[in-house]
Design goal:
Length: 431
């Protein structure tokens, strides 16, 4: 049976890295995934000891030791062990001091399936090394996380692609998940990425928190069309705006999930999204568009184009009561309406429709509803024998002992329903 062990151990049995490393040395068959948290001491000596133990260990498949400063010499020792012992499939190691030299010291990432180099201060030279190494030994790599490395930039992505391309016929043939969040990627980087994706099997791509802007949506739109295997793209916090959404919406896509949160998309962009949902993005099942000033009209435009959806995130979109109501009967399984200031009136209106919906998870948290309207919402569930609802989030609204009483009554009737809420601090005198 697989055992995940942190430096604290399981059930308090192992309190330090010393005890944990001893288990690795003993080839504990239950220790499959090793997690050493940043709060523990794990430096060069400990890494050397771990590397030595790995040469005799046949059970460990995953090492997670991010957040620790590690000297280059110890990283080279680990690299040599990994080169000859291919049973380690997942690796996350080092802190923000790793840098380009650290990547070079780690070497070829021999037969890894998952490599996490997030927040490691990688730059152009590090990406050059990484491209060359994965071009040689990256045939099994399925997940590559390079997030929060702002020095990568466009040039880093270009040299990475050139390195992988020059050393293998197919670039990372088994790569499925690629995280490039917060890497300062722009138009030129996207062009290199597009070449990479044409011949890849990538299904999940995160470009979140890159300064792409509307101009980058031209190569992005082309990427939508040419990278047919991609199912999920995150463009959260990429400064896309209405103009960028209009550009993206004109291209067909096989995407199943799209994250456009925090992109200053308004009513005009919402109209473009609605057209895309009807005509070009017919496979889309998940749309996250939180923290955009869509307004009530914009939300109604989008909801009118939806007929059956796995998830729609409209948190903090100023959707208004009318916008919220427009989404409830559109066959959406997970609906997030967090922090839209729906107020008590919004909850009363939602209560009228809630028993008729097919929603499985509904987030109404942070909407400034009073306790009376919360009670009315809960009473609407008391009146039905069956509900599709499995999760109802109503935290960060006003509560009371009466609300808590009704929650318990609802759970008696619908025992599979989980109601996430704030518990009242004091007993009410009105029970």
């Amino acid at each position: 049976e697989k055992c995940t062990m942190s430096a604290w151990g399981s059930s308090g049995a192992a309190k330090s890295c010393n005890t944990l490393l001893t288990r690795v040395e003993r080839n504990d068959p239950q220790l499959k995934e090793l997690i050493i948290l940043p709060t523990k001491t794990f430096g060069g000596a400990e890494l050397e000891r771990l590397a030595s133990a790995l040469s005799q260990n046949t059970n460990l498949i995953s090492i997670s030791a991010s957040g620790h400063f590690l000297p280059l010499s110890s990283l080279r020792t680990l690299s040599q062990v990994l080169k000859h012992d291919a049973h380690i499939k997942q690796l996350a190691i080092g802190d923000n001091n790793l840098g380009d030299e650290g990547v070079a010291a780690l070497g070829g990432f021999h037969d890894l399936e998952k490599l996490d180099l997030a927040y490691k201060n990688l730059g152009t030279e590090g990406m050059r090394f990484l491209g060359a190494f994965t071009g040689i030994g990256g045939r099994h790599l399925t997940d590559l996380n390079l997030a929060r490395n702002p020095k990568i930039g466009d040039e880093g992505l270009k040299v990475f692609y050139n390195g992988t391309k020059s050393l293998s016929g197919i670039v990372l043939p088994n790569l499925r998940t690629f995280d490039l969040s917060e890497c300062q990627i722009g138009v030129e980087g996207l062009k290199a990425l597009q070449k990479f994706l044409v011949q890849s099997s990538l299904t999940n791509l995160s470009l979140a928190s890159n300064p792409l802007g509307p101009s980058s949506c031209v190569p992005l739109a082309s990427l939508f069309t040419t990278a047919q295997k991609i199912q999920f793209i995150s463009l959260a916090s990429c400064e896309v705006g209405d103009e960028g959404v209009i550009t993206l919406s004109k291209n067909t896509s096989q995407l199943r999930q799209l994250d456009l949160s925090n992109n200053q998309i308004g009513h005009i962009g919402a109209k473009a999204l609605a057209i895309a949902l009807r005509e070009n993005w017919k496979e889309l099942l998940v749309l996250r568009i939180a923290n955009n000033p869509l307004g009530s009209d914009g939300v109604r435009e989008i909801s009118s184009a939806i007929n059956g959806f796995e998830e729609l995130d409209l948190s903090q979109t100023s959707c208004g009561v009318a916008g919220a109501k427009s989404t409830l009967l559109r066959g959406i399984r997970t609906l997030r309406l967090f922090n839209n200031q729906l107020g008590s009136n919004g909850f009363l209106e939602i209560a009228k429709l809630l028993p008729k919906t097919n929603i499985v998870e509904l987030d109404l948290g942070g909407n400034k509803a009073n306790a009376d309207s919360m009670m009315e919402l809960l009473r609407s569930l008391l009146d039905v024998k069956e509900t599709s609802l499995k999760v109802l989030i109503i935290g960060a609204n006003q509560t009371s002992m009466e609300v808590e009483y009704l929650v318990e009554k609802v759970k008696e009737i619908h025992p599979t329903l989980d109601v996430a809420r704030d518990k009242p601090k004091e007993k009410s005198n009105n029970l």
